[in-house]
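For the sake of transparency, this paper describes our internal protein records without simplification. The remainder of this section carries one protein's record, kept here as part of the documentation:
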Amino acid sequence: MRRYIRAFLACMLFAVFSALYVYSKLFYSDLSVGGRGLGEKTFLHRAAASKRSDIGQETRRGPDETDPGDQHWYILRKAEGRVRTAAAMHLAVVACGQRLQETLTMLKSAVMLSIKPLCLHIFAEDQLHASFIEALESWPGSFRSRFNYTLYPITFPRENAGEWKKLFKPCASQRLFLPLILKEVDSLVYVDSDILFLQPVDALWSLLAHFNATQLAAMAPEHEEPRIAWYSRFARHPYYGRTGINSGVMLMNMTRIRATYFKNDMTSVGLRWEELLMPLLQKYKLNMTWGDQDLLNIIFHHNPECLLEVPCHWNYRPDHCIYGSNCGSAEEEGIFILHGNRGVYHDLKQPAFRAVYDAIRQYSFREDPVSSLLVPLEEELLKTTRSYCGKSHVLFTKRLAHSLANVNRDAQRPHGW
């Protein structure tokens, strides 16, 4: 009798452990990365893949089959459990095509200068994911401990996905859907891949505390002077303020965005964010030049009380110096965030912008940032003074010098854990 009981219990235990094994295989595919013996894992989430007929086949649905609210696939990298999400700043970027190195340089500038820890949300084409993981995992542990990151696929609404993806530039309109994708994130800094932080992200993040009861986003103007601004001269649709806004740097309270009913010129009632985007695109797409940025201008034209307009030193572009210096706040305080639009990091048209980009890209985390980054950059900028932007070279390093001095001072300080 005892023999039968033992056999029965053995069978039951085998069944339980088999079930647990199958359950774990159905929900997670364990992909170790880093190779440093630290127990660090990357998890490929399968929980929402119920429509797939073959669970064992690791395929992903294309953009035409996805929806911003359906995070069915994402890669999550945990930084040894040291980043407390509640205390961290959230930074998002979108990378498509040849933007890998540019995006990594932006992320380097953000992590290098940050004070509080960062949660990075990287939206990228699938073929770029492995390269992002390899690069970020190669950063020294003292910098890796400052951030967590999540890699997401490019995700658009199922209907009209192709239209959204090719609007203006590939994947650029992804930023419009961040409030619908990152539903658990309260506030977020979004930046284009061609952004460089010359001041800690913390400075921009602190502006959230300056939002009044109706403001839910902060952006800088597209231009300072209406007589030479693009929107005031050429736009064939409504735009914000006198010169429009530039969406390369956006600070968002996404909880407020999700809860707000936006005034518009299509209905007499307010529409939620997710109800507003497609109708606006259908109405104005033949009149738009700058894609998703134009849509944001239309939205905030009708809802100006929702926007905090920040000075141009938060989004300094070639337009601010190419015909002579026209950003007064940068003249006074220096450049906080550099925006190398028009591809100026990769050609010789604006050597001052390229000099800053190359200096940060080439900087090794293990070197002294003042002697290895700032000093060579200042020397390189002196070679650019024949260009209009080069004549303002002091503005390019004024805030960076202060920021790097703080990096040196705080090099041994734990970062917010």
